[in-house]
Amino acid sequence: MGNCVPSSFCNAYGGRSGGSCGSLAVCCIYTIVKCGEKTTLNNTYWRNPPSVSSDTSCSLTFTLDNSLIEQRKPICQVRLDFKSFTVAQPNPATSHCDSDYLQVVGAVNKVPIICGDNDDQHMYLEAPSPTTEFLFLMKFGVSSVTRTWNIGISLIPCGADFLAKHQRSATPRDCLQYFTRHMGTGSVKSFNWRDASGMRQLADMDYKICFRNEIITNKQKATRICYTQCITRGDGQSFRLGRFPSSTSRNGAVNCPDDFVLIPNGFNPLIPTDVSDRYCGGALNPAATDGPSATVCFLWDPCSSDCQEPAFLDVSSMAVQWDLYEMYLALLQAPLYHLIIEGLLMVWVAWLLLRKPKIRKPILTEKEQEELITDWQPEPLVPDTNEDHPALDPFVVEGKVGKYVCVNGRDCLNLATHNYLGLVEDKNMEDSAVECIKKYGVGSCGPRGFYGTVDVHLNLETRLAEFMELEEALIYSYGFSTIASAIPAYAKRGDVIFADEGSNFAVQKGLEASRSDVRFFKHNDMKDLERLLEAQSAKELKNGKNGKPVRKFLVVEGVYMNSGDICPLPEIVELKSKYKVRLFVDESISFGTLGRHGKGITEYYGIPADHIDLIMGSLEYAIPSVGGFCVGTSYVVDHQRLSGLGYCFSASLPPMLAAAAISAIDTMEHDPDMFLDLNNVCRKLHSALSTLHQLRLGGHRDAPVKHLRLAKSTGCHNHDGQLLRQIANESMKRGLAVIVASYLDQSERFLPQPSLRLVANRLLTENDLDKAIKILEDSCTAVLS
Amino acid sequence: MAITSTCNCKLAPGQNGKSKHAYCSTESHFTDKQTFQEGYEGIGKPRNRNGIESFEEVPMSVALLTYMGWGIVILIGYVKEFLLSFVPSQNPEKNREGYAPLYSSFESFYTRNVYRPIRDCWNRPICSVPGAELVLKDRVTHDNGWTFSFTNTFTKCLNMGSYNYLGFAECEGPCATAAQKTTYGLGLGVCSPRQELGTMAIHKELETLVARFVGAEDAITFGMGFATNALNLPSLVSKGCLVISDENNHASLILGLRLSGATIRVFKHNNMKSLEAKLREAVVQGQPRTYRPWRKILIVVEGVYSMEGSIVNLPEIIALKKKYKAYLYLDEAHSIGALGPRGRGAVDYFGCDPKDVDILMGTFTKSFGSAGGYIAGSKKLINHLRINSHANCYATAMSPPVAQQIISSMCIIMGEDGTDEGQRRLVQLSRNSRYFRQKLRQLGLIVYGNDDSPVVPVLLFMPAKIAATSRELIKRGVASVSVGFPATRITESRSRFCISASHTKEMLDKAIEAMDEVGDLLRLKYSRLPRPIGPVIYGEDKKPQQDQVD
After folding, report:
1. Do A245 and A210 touch, CB atoms closer than 8 A?
2. According to its UniProt record, which reaction does this protein catalyse (chain B) (predicted)?
3. Stretch A463-478: mean pLDDT, rounded?
4. Residues of A691-719 as b/e, b for ≥16 C-beta within 10 angstroms?
5. Chain A: nearest CA to B284, how far in angstroms?
6. Which of A23, A137, A220, A406 has a CA that sits 20 to 30 A from residue B221's CA?
7. 3-state SS string over A305-323?
8. Are the Cβ atoms of A444 and B481 closer than 8 angstroms?
9. Which of A731, A785, A719, A718 is nearest to A757 (CA)?
10. What is the ipTM of this complex?
């Protein structure tokens, strides 16, 4: 017998594993083979040391203390099991254990001193209080006998019922020996009895031997217990008590004055009149006269044990004692399926406890629901519109929107549309578009993936990549969607985007669609940008190396549509490399206008284009067609062919418009001086506009887009807009087409101040500029004074 | 005889090909079958637009094999990546050390290992007009799909891939001529948004015509169909509004809705029970947490679903919309021109009143052979959009020849060019669709969608068959479109045929024959439904009848 504990427990206490028990534990056997040891462990085996010499002693101290972790329940009894026990025989003359003996010190009940052969014997020791010590003392005299012993020591907690399972009674107290046997048969030996000749009785024995009443048949308890002498095979005598020479029975107080076995009211079942209490002599017989051995029975008084005991165990006190450690041990011994089921139950309980309390929707009756449905009045689909809004009555252009434009029936010089290079009137573009219609028709009737890729598209992509001296280009069928699709193709939830406050609306929509964390820096303010970058890198540093690398993007415009400013690319590239941020540049305006060959912002600053991760451009301004494009390395650009929503899920650009764009690139490559011309016009326009007194000029002198704001703002956004609109209308009447930049006031992230947006056109001459300035001055005067 | 006052009772397609139901839009008028019949008789002759919608279920064994197929594809990919991990790899980017990776690993895994080996099935370049036939520019790959090079040979194929429903993708004829003329007359680029100086007379003309065509008070047009959805939905709904959207709605609608900030709930594809449940819950429960009533509810559906081939159950949606006071956004990208006896989309197909659809949206890319999109509806709606639409305010106006192409083709469809060419094309398309679909069904192929829909998806299921079908069909001179995950559900890879009015019966027979061979070769004939018996006679069944209104 061992303790079922985790193997680590067993090792810690110096035990030895005797096989597994339960799912995670081992049967731990703890054996002491030394003298003078102390122990506290249940199921300890005390064995003789390898050699036991004469005239020595050997002891074991067993401490009971229920504050110890291994004795969590108060211990009331200790059972000694003599697995084997052989020491010297008692003095043949006196039967006293003079030479060798075992003495138990510390028990409440009287424990006799024993010696000789006591294999398979046992003893119950009563513990005086929960805290005590037992001393088991072996004393060895002078003898040649080989002393061996192996004594199991087990602890019986107070109130334990397993010894009296069927009787529901507490462990009988005061019994040195207690026999429990299934079916209720067995043999009882006195100490040092052995099937051998000679006098083996020990002196000074005075102890009780108790028997548990067992259920024997039909779940009935026994009504009596009978004792019969065993038949010996050797020289031994199965019953011999006292120094009487004959082998006949003796009984009664007179006949057995000193040594006897007491069987209260013992009787012979065959001769019920033979009744006696004390038995001694050479045979067991309750008859009045000496006789041979006979069966002696004892009637179990039905009330002696059962009725006086409480009928039920005190369950509540048991529950208290069933503490954590016990639970833990039980857990270890439980079979696996049990653990799984309990685990599932625990998960279920945890789920019940932790799940979000579901808001119980009020259960409404059908009628209540119908009422709600009847009562609900939605807002109108769209709110009422202001009938005077300028967008409802836009200027209507007849004919081409070229350098001159016919607006509302009046020819005007056009400073309003983004026809920077004046290619709207380019005959070659129109010819190539018409040639293309003759071959391919107008529409492509499908997205790029599904037979919407016409060789013209591929040519345009190749040409754009070559023009920009980058690896790959990709075209979209709409300029706005290019920007708004390209950004979210890369930037996703969890990424960080740094963007300029002055970004145009397409960029804003792209940022919004990406669902990334967008941080705006002040327009063209590199200090502010660096501050944001620094804050982000500090945050990443804090997260340490374990943090996932955060994708960071920086989105700027080459020339800002909303202000006409040029971005400080050299500083931006420096910051971008320092903080490892990917740089996306919207070159819608700068492509085809800045740089000696119109290659945009990179050429303008002389910075290699491969510093920029993605260049996004438009085919709707410098190249007056429709569509947009992205250009960069294949690694970056190719991704949009599957992930750019506006690329994948939209019909491709009508081939004729792509063909026109190719023709425009031809012209641009063929005649690079046009960029010089444009730059001249830009600068001249800039200096001319700066002479206006009532309007304040914004924007870079090299940028083709200029913004004029009221020099003296009225302080009211709408009123400023109104005044500027009047100036535009006035100019229109006088033959100059200028417009107020249109914004959606509610939707803009940072609503720019109202302004007249003027656009430089390569074809403008000095005269044109003079005329424009004159008209603007006149209109201002007419409106503002 | 006027039937336009309300969308009166019509036989609408039964769901799942099992049942045909009578739908009443105005339930108060017709509450049971009896009165419905009376009402129906009262209107006049029934129109034969009761195409059956069918979505045959995947056989269990096929579904298992499909999952297994994907498993194998993914497994091979992982093994390959594992082996490649021993090869010292170069950073694909120069000068970008220390940058966070640009792409997420699964995304690029899928692209590298699943898409790339069969990349040749998409983006096939053409070098002709995408009419009834097209000319493919042949290309080969020597590195398993990483790069392609042109062979300078050309293959002529029957075009079953383009959305050229009415055959207006033409390089000659009145439309092309007019577009050429406009190019010279008005130029190509406008270089300005509509709100600034980009509004031309031709735009106004186009918008008036579109409004007349779809039967709405006013219309507004935009330069790109995708942008029409993506840039206008945010001006129609916003936070506190609920959008109930079909699960198979197009990416542009989803993007637009996402940008709008409105709450989006999805109902099962074309499933009216699911839609009603969502509507009812929305009206009864109000907004989550606050229980405040929704500001407004918008139902967003498409006329014809381009991957399912199904037609929206418009009459019932209109009935539900009225019952629950929701608004309806109908994207007719694939249905305008392609459906209805007068080619005016799903509204015309069911004979509904266009005024019952609050927002009629459509594109010009498909049936009109041009580009761009429109939104039509009440004057108030269009005015609101003219002021608030992102596209109208910021995006460049439509190119004049593109607008001209729409005007020309629309006039032809309306018969205002003085010929019956438009009517001929409409009849041809309708005959072609029904003939082609029935023939494919007869072959035992699983064909999804409505009998009248010109979009014909044939189910392939297994991933390996996506490329195989596409390649085999090209070998036989038929250009079709094959799609799989993520464009479809993972088990529902399909090959799609788009029928055009420019297809002749002989062309269709060629495609059917090719599909028969490929179906046997690749074991595509999964259908367990009883096949239509007897010859399918071209053009015999149910001609769309000329309406008596106009």
Report:
1. no
2. L-serine + hexadecanoyl-CoA + H(+) = 3-oxosphinganine + CO2 + CoA
3. 95
4. eeebbbbbbbbbbbbbbbbbeeeeeeeee
5. 6
6. A406
7. HHHCCCCCCCHHHHHHHCC
8. no
9. A731
10. 0.88
